[in-house]
């Protein structure tokens, strides 16, 4: 086994990482659903909001990239084990950075994303108020 | 020789653009103070012909590019990098605009053609305003000529011709995508006319209903193409990417959505200006914003900044060039606006409950949605520049844009029923009751179905009510007497309801089945049973594929055959999944075949997507509504001109 592992490692080093991943069979739940439809729906909802790190602007639920498959499998297994979706998101964010989550959270870097819509609401009210006067 | 002819034509066109800017501006400033067209300087006669000639030259140049791609002239760098001798002819030609330089040439070609068209046919406005408009069009074109000729020459030759081309991305080798960029570009660049009209009117301070009527058909035409382009692009993503998603809030998609939002707002505000002489500055502002969004979209897509801010920094020449152009044009136009807006009277006032009131409200909502999309698209780029990578995706865009979309949809139901200037709710009581009834029925039905999340829930209910509301302006009218442009509005609004229904239905009711089946086995998804009859290798012109032969039956009905493929292209080496679709009136079955697993079973991905097709049918209907509107307005304009001419003739006869 050790030898086989060494060979695999060698293959991974000499060819591109993408190729190595292609040669491995996909993770168990990459292309398989959970049997409980409720849990699967939960997993689906979470997967739709996680970014595939290898793709351009696709969620892991929308991608054939090997890493997306691995992440799908990870998410499904953890959901099946009864973990909370937001805990899984946090775990992935710790591992891959905030970049992996499509759902920005209010923080020191992202607060304008949430402040601007509020300002826009006020602005919209003000503009409509000002534009609409009495007919002269 | 062919490539050199194309390049020479491009240089000449650029020279003519300079001429047109100089003569146009001289004309505007020569007789300042008087708006009398009879005292135009002699030089004014050069402006229109140079715009027309410029259009012909760029068409010629673009034709030369198509030519070198059609014959796969591998001594031209662009052909060697983006084409391949073994490709079907249609994709060889499509490769001409499937790359940076070619698409920028397409951009300036459309831009100068649009300029040539207004120079040729648009004679309703005071000539000085038109001279200013054509000069502005030339000035914008000039920047893009400079960009092409100085940093993105499409006709560049290789010192040694390549033996074979590098090929085109297989995802792009699809008929839908071959014609998607030109459609979108016509829309993008068509908005340049609105921009130039706005600048022209600011220069001569003639923001009038006549100006709005002259500008409207151009905006409508550009908007129709944008609508078609976005709809087609969404459908392409849906069937080509192989996972059944149709909108990803991807920056590239947002780049096309932003001009559309601005153009939609502009379209409605220009109607207010044309009919009621109100919202003058607002319309001008939107004219500037709409094309600015087109340019911003081009910058985002063409600079490489989307892949990574760092990729942009490594090869900054092109990106910086477009960024400077953006700053010059948008900044310049906004500066002009700031200087002149004060001298333009805002126009007539109106009550809250009036057609104008509703249109203003929705204009503000559209602008707010535009701001949200702009923020969500640019913000990650800003943080990345400071070393923090964040993602902004559907969990942000969906709810935040809904804050503004929902009130907009509600007002959109009532707006077309209201009269101009001032109206009351009691006059349209009957129609209002029908809309409320539709809302109530919608809520009851969706509650009975059960298990639908908030946003799809609202989407389904609002879609039903909007469908009823969009038809209600026809109530009590003789359908044959309803003007064509009113039909256009009804159809476009109904199309929005239909698209919304499709979107909400797809989110609420889609059934998914990911499974591995052996040959002869059956998988169930929703009301469908799908049997894998076999898997066979097939070959295309530049690819080989494993093709799954499926028979699918809807609730035990007569089975149909589906043949999804997993294709391997060899130039460049890349795999794509070709989905197979079966469309019924009530939805679409979506099938994809994946890899073979260790036990010899094949991965199947199946979706039953109820009513999903209505997304794009609705989009098509919106564009068709725009077209009817355009035809209606043009016919009305022609009738007006005929009547005027007849009156003039009669007056002449009476005088004689």
Automatic annotation (TrEMBL), chain B:
Where's the Cytochrome c assembly protein domain? 97-303
The UniProt keyword set, sorted, is: Cell inner membrane, Cell membrane, Cytochrome c-type biogenesis, Lyase, Membrane, Transmembrane, Transmembrane helix
User: Which positions carry the signal peptide feature in this UniProt record?
Assistant: none
What's an example GO BP annotation here?
A: cytochrome complex assembly
Membrane topology value? Multi-pass membrane protein
Query: A single Pfam family, by name?
Result: CcmF_C
Instruction: List cellular component terms (GO).
Output: plasma membrane
**Keyword Cell inner membrane attached:** yes
Q: Which residues cross the membrane?
A: 6-30, 51-71, 104-121, 133-151, 185-205, 217-237, 257-275, 282-301, 321-339, 360-382, 402-420, 432-449, 455-472, 484-504, 611-632
Cytochrome c-type biogenesis protein CcmF C-terminal domain ranges (all copies): 323-633
Which InterPro entries does the annotation name? CcmF_C (IPR032523), Cyt_c_assembly (IPR002541), Cyt_c_biogenesis (IPR003567), Cyt_c_biogenesis_CcmF (IPR003568)
Which GO molecular function entries does the Swiss-Prot or TrEMBL record give?
heme binding; heme transmembrane transporter activity; lyase activity
- Places the protein is found: Cell inner membrane
Which family is annotated?
Belongs to the CcmF/CycK/Ccl1/NrfE/CcsA family.
Q: Which PANTHER family match?
A: CYTOCHROME C ASSEMBLY PROTEIN-RELATED (PTHR43653), CYTOCHROME C-TYPE BIOGENESIS PROTEIN CCMF (PTHR43653:SF1)
Q: What does this protein do?
A: Required for the biogenesis of c-type cytochromes. Possible subunit of a heme lyase.
What is this protein identified as?
Heme lyase CcmF/NrfE family subunit
Q: What is the lineage of its organism?
A: Bacteria, Pseudomonadati, Pseudomonadota, Alphaproteobacteria, Sphingomonadales
């Amino acid at each position: 086994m050790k030898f086989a592992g060494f060979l695999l490692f060698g293959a991974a080093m000499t060819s591109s990482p993408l190729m190595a991943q292609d040669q491995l069979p996909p993770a168990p739940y990459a292309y398989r659903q959970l049997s409980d439809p409720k849990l699967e729906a939960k997993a689906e909802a979470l997967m739709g909001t996680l970014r595939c790190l290898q793709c351009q602007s696709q969620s892991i639920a929308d991608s054939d990239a090997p890493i997306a498959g691995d992440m799908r499998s990870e998410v499904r297994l953890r959901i099946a084990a009864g973990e909370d979706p937001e805990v899984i998101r946090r775990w992935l964010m710790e591992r891959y950075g905030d970049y992996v989550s499509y759902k920005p959270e209010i923080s020191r870097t992202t607060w304008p994303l949430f402040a601007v819509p509020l300002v826009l609401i006020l602005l919209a009210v003000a503009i409509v108020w000002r534009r609409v006067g009495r007919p002269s | 020789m062919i490539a050199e002819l194309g390049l020479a034509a491009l240089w000449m066109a650029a020279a003519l653009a300079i001429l047109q800017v100089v003569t146009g501006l001289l004309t505007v400033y020569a007789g300042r103070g008087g708006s009398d067209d009879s005292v135009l300087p002699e030089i004014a006669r050069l402006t229109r012909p140079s715009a027309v000639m410029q259009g012909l030259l760029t068409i010629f140049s673009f034709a030369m590019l198509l030519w070198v791609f059609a014959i796969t002239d591998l001594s031209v760098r662009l052909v060697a990098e983006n084409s391949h001798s073994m490709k079907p002819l249609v994709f060889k030609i499509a490769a001409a605009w499937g790359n940076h330089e070619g698409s920028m040439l397409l951009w300036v070609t459309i831009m100068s053609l649009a300029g040539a068209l207004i120079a040729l046919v648009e004679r309703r406005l005071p000539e000085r305003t038109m001279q200013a408009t054509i000069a502005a069009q030339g000035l914008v074109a000039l920047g893009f000529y400079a960009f092409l000729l100085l940093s993105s020459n499409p006709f560049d030759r290789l010192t040694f011709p390549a033996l074979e081309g590098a090929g085109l991305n297989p995802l792009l080798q699809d008929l839908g995508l071959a014609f998607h960029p030109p459609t979108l570009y016509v829309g993008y660049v068509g908005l340049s006319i609105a921009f130039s009209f706005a600048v022209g009117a600011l220069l001569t301070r003639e923001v009038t209903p006549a100006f709005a009527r002259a500008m409207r058909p151009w905006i409508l035409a550009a908007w129709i193409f944008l609508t078609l382009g976005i709809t087609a692009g969404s459908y392409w993503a849906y069937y080509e990417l192989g996972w059944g998603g149709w909108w990803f809030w991807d920056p590239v998609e947002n780049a096309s959505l932003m001009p559309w939002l601005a153009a939609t707002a502009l379209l409605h505000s220009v109607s207010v200006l044309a009919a009621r002489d109100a919202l003058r500055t607002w319309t001008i502002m939107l004219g500037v914003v709409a094309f600015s969004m087109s340019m911003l979209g081009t910058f985002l897509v063409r600079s490489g900044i989307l892949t990574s801010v760092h990729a942009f920094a490594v090869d900054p020449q092109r990106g910086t060039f477009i960024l400077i152009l953006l700053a010059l044009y948008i900044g310049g136009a906004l500066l002009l606006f700031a200087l002149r807006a004060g001298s333009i009277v805002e126009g007539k006032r109106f009550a809250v409950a009036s057609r104008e009131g509703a249109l203003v409200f929705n204009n503000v909502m559209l602008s707010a949605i535009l701001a949200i999309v702009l923020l969500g698209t640019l913000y990650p780029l800003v943080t990345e520049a400071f070393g923090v990578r964040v993602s902004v995706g559907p969990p942000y865009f969906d709810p935040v844009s809904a804050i503004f979309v929902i009130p907009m949809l509600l007002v959109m139901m009532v707006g077309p029923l209201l009269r101009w200037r001032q109206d009351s709710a009691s006059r349209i009581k009957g129609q209002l009751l029908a809309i409320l009834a539709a809302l109530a029925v919608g809520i009851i039905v969706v509650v009975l179905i059960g298990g639908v999340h908030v946003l799809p829930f609202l989407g389904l209910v609002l879609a039903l009510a909007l469908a009823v509301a969009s038809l209600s302006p026809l109530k009590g009218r003789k359908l044959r007497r309803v003007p064509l442009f009113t039909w256009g509005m009804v159809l476009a609004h109904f199309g929005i309801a239909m698209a919304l229904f499709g979107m909400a239905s797809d989110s609420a009711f889609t059934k998914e089945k990911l499974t591995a089946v052996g040959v002869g086995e059956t998988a169930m998804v929703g009301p469908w049973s799908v049997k894998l009859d076999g898997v066979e290798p097939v070959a295309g012109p530049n690819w080989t594929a494993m093709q799954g032969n499926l028979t699918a039956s809807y609730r035990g009905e007569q089975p149909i055959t589906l043949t999804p493929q997993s294709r391997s292209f060899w130039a460049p080496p890349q795999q794509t999944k070709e989905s197979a679709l079966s469309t019924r009136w009530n939805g679409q079955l979506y099938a994809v075949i994946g890899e073979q697993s260790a036990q010899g079973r094949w991965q199947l991905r199946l979706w039953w997507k109820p009513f999903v097709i209505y997304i794009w049918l609705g989009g098509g209907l919106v564009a068709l509504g725009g077209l009817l509107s355009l035809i209606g307005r043009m016919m009305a304009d022609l009738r007006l001109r005929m009547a005027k001419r007849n009156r003039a003739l009669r007056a002449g006869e009476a005088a004689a």
